[in-house]
Amino acid sequence: MRLTRDVCLVGGGRFGFGLTSPGDSHVYLVDGGDDLLLVDAGIGGVAGDPQRILAEIERDGYDPSRISRLFLTHYHTDHMGGAAEMRDLLGCELHGSPLTARTLEAGDEKQVSLPEAKRAGYFPEDYVLRPAPCAGDLTEDATFAVGSLSLRVIETPGHAAGHVSFLVEGGERVYLLQGDVIFFGGTVFLQNTHDCSIQDYAQSVNKLAEIEFDAHLPGHLGISLEDGKRHIMAAKAVFDALGVPKNLV
Ligand SMILES: [Zn+2]
């Protein structure tokens, strides 16, 4: 689904637009002209079907084999579980924060709280996190060219350790691809997991509040192409009052 000249939404499940497998996070294609980047991979494994994401990419007019890299916002399985299969299908490089990369390379199900998520009914019992080689070079202020676009990494822990967001400039709008930090209306996604931190969350939101951008491209739910920063500021106002913004679960 084309959002702008520079970005398409090519995946997303039941907490999105129902484009692909129900457990998929939003998956974005960033088009820099002579280079294509995928952001997040969907759930994969027995719960997913990466071919449906490839079909969406083709429906938007792209040859999936042109995708050179896949950047991961964080290691939760609805975002990273399909990474190994995507690498097989596309021949692309995988990139994440150092912790995300280590976790994917080890297939570390404990780190991503998969046993707890299975007990909570989010994943089938036979779901397995498939490991894959991953570069851990998505660190604070690292910048990457995506064709004519430029992408800057912003470390945004809180929802999960090692979570990063991406500021994409040089296109028809400025885009913030921010995984599971803030959702439409300033909603947060705090979970009862070992690596979730309210204090880190508030600091990440403060950091994003300093950045100017147009489009708010989260990992689930509604997308705003204009004035996307209002969602960040709504959460910041609650954190600044020492409260906790409305939670997704
Ligand atoms: Zn998440």
Name some characteristics of this structure.
single chain; 249 residues; alpha/beta; Metallo-beta-lactamase, Chain A; five-stranded mixed beta sheet; 7 helices; 10 strands; binds zinc ion
The CATH architecture comes to 4-Layer Sandwich
Q: Give unreliable regions as ranges.
A: none
Please indicate the count of domains. 1
Superfamily (CATH H level) name: Ribonuclease Z/Hydroxyacylglutathione hydrolase-like
Oligomer: single chain
Mean pLDDT: 97
Total helical segments: 7
Shape: globular
What is the N-to-C order of secondary-structure elements (H for helix, E for strand)? Answer: EEEHEHHEHHEEEEHEH
Spatial extent as radius of gyration = 16 Å
Strand content: 15-25%
Strand order of the largest sheet: 1-2-3-4-5
Major beta sheet summary: 5 strands, mixed
For this structure, the CATH topology is Metallo-beta-lactamase, Chain A
The count of β-strands is 10
Topology of this structure?
Layout: E1 7-11, E2 27-31, E3 36-39, H1 50-59, E4 67-71, H2 77-80, H3 83-90, E5 93-95, H4 98-106, H5 114-119, E6 143-146, E7 149-155, E8 164-169, E9 175-177, H6 198-209, E10 215-217, H7 229-240
Parallel strand pairs: 3-4, 4-5, 9-10
Antiparallel strand pairs: 1-2, 2-3, 6-7, 7-8, 8-9
